[in-house]
Amino acid sequence: MPVALLPPTTGSAVSLDVKALTTGPRFLRTQGMSRWHRPRSGSRHGDRDCYTAWCGYNIGSSDRARALTADEIPAGELVCATCEGRAIGAGQEEQQPGGRRLGFGPRELRPPKNCPGSRRAFLAPLPGGTTARCLVCGDTHPVRAMGGPYNPRFGLIQHPPGAALVEPCPFHRWRQLTITDRTVSCTCGRPTPAPAA
Ligand SMILES: [Zn+2]
Ligand SMILES: [Zn+2]
Ligand SMILES: [Zn+2]
Question: Of 38, 14, 161, whose CA–CA distance to 91 is shortest?
Fold first, then answer.
């Protein structure tokens, strides 16, 4: 049974032919590893799948031919404690060990406190000119003049993300949004569609 993966967030550029994996094996390791790890996220590069374990190891890629996967690990073999605790805490297992509930929520996956459309011209003006609809989150907010006297521009006031916040880029989340012809996307070129109503 594959497990659900988190998005493979990164601060680096990711070419458009790389795909984010949404499911992966429950346990994996290379033949050289002394213990099993658990995948947090994964990406597909051509015919190569590469996983990042909860503890930070990257498994796959050139190791693919040697990477082992398992649904249950053989009796007596070790599991990486960091991977196991974080995987369970983040919800990759339904069963919680020992009757305790573990919790682990990677901070960078939460929606931003302020909408990325704040203080920017990601907006569709509304009649009257004092308010506009945010093209990132769908909410309506007042428009303010921003920038200095030599580069005046108009932007929405700072605001929390509305319910119609665009879907995040699987690699860059909401951190690198750009706008072309009133369509918001990630600067890497991946679309960030509005959520289904
Ligand atoms: Zn690990
Ligand atoms: Zn907004
Ligand atoms: Zn992106």
Answer: 38
